[in-house]
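[agent] plan:
  1. take the single chain provided in the ticket
  2. run structure prediction with default settings
  3. attach C-alpha cells to the ticket
  4. add a short note for the reviewer (M.T.)
[agent] executing step 1
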Amino acid sequence: MIDTSVMVAGLVTNHEFHALARSHVAAAARGQVPGIVLAETWAALRRAPWNLDTRTVEAALAPWSDESRIVATFTSAYAEILRRGRPLNLGGNAHDLLIALTCRDHGLPLVTLDRRQAALAAELAGLDWQLLLPTG
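[agent] step 2 finished; step 3 output follows
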C-alpha cells in the first residue's frame, strides 16, 4: 500500500518524485489504500502548492471511490498511538504511524517517500515497508 507522500507524488505530474511514485499509484489504483491516505491526499491536493479544484481531486481519487477499495483503520491502532506516542516522540507525524499501523494490521506492505514515515515503520514489528528515496 502507498502512503500520502507516494499518492500525491504519483498523481501530480510536475511533482519532483512523480517518476518514482507513478507506478506505485497505478498499482494501488487496482488495489486498496488506507482511508486516511485518501483523506490526506484530498487535503494536500486542495492546498498550496497544488491548489487543485474539487472536481480535479475527485477525478484523481476516483479509483478508490468504491468502499471495497478503502482499507479501514482498526480502533486498536488509535489505542496503540496513545500508548506509543510518548516513547516514539510523536508530534505532527501521528498520522504517519496510523497509516503504518493500518498496513501492518491488514498484512499489507507500506511504500513511502517520507523518511519520517520510514523511521516509524522500522519501529513496527511485522510491517514490510519500502522507502523509495535513496538512503543517506
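[agent] step 4 note for reviewer: The helical segments are 4-11, 18-28, 35-46, 54-60, 75-84, 94-105, 115-122.
[agent] ticket updated
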